[in-house]
């Protein structure tokens, strides 16, 4: 709050309705002067306490949604929103699969995939970026012919991609 060295106050008021732990209004202010402050406490009628704070801010944010600035003594303007800066992520073309498996009903990892049957595929990747969406094309030659499957998924923080309904089908 305000000190002799720094007469301009900044802070945040959180207003609660008395039933929830979450505030229903939050007012964050900066470059403000506290012009008046008083408290009243009425012991005779239920012990209610009222706090009155009058501030004269130059900048306010209401409920993290509305940013306003005072241009003149009575004129408020919305603060122009700054465009969001997104960091560019360059995908590495050398992403490789370290392991691919599915888990059978007995809880065992299986690395031979059934043809024409949907399984939950687990892929463990190397040289990946977290959150990167990767397209996979699988092709395998079997005694029954060439089998094919295409799918895509997003890598998690452990380098895994999980495909819910992975199915190898015969290529015609």
UniProtKB/TrEMBL annotation:
Pfam families: TssD (PF17642)
Superkingdom of source: Bacteria
A GO cellular component entry from the record: type VI protein secretion system complex
Name used for this protein in its record: Uncharacterized protein
Organism: Prevotella intermedia
């Amino acid at each position: 709050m305000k000190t002799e060295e720094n007469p301009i106050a900044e802070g945040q008021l959180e207003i609660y309705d008395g039933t929830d732990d979450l505030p229903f209004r939050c007012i964050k202010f900066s470059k403000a002067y506290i012009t008046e402050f008083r408290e009243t406490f009425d012991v005779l009628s239920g012990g209610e306490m009222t706090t009155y704070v009058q501030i004269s801010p130059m900048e306010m944010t209401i409920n993290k949604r509305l940013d306003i600035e005072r241009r003149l003594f009575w004129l408020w303007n919305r603060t122009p929103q700054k465009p969001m800066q997104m960091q560019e992520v360059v995908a590495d073309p050398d992403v490789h699969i370290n392991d691919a498996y599915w888990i059978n009903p007995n809880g065992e990892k299986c690395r031979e995939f059934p043809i024409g049957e949907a399984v939950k595929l687990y892929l463990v990747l190397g040289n990946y970026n977290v959150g990167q969406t990767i397209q996979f094309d699988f092709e395998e030659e079997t005694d029954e012919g060439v089998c094919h499957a295409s799918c895509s998924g997003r890598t998690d923080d452990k380098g895994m991609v999980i495909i819910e309904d992975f199915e190898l089908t015969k290529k015609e």
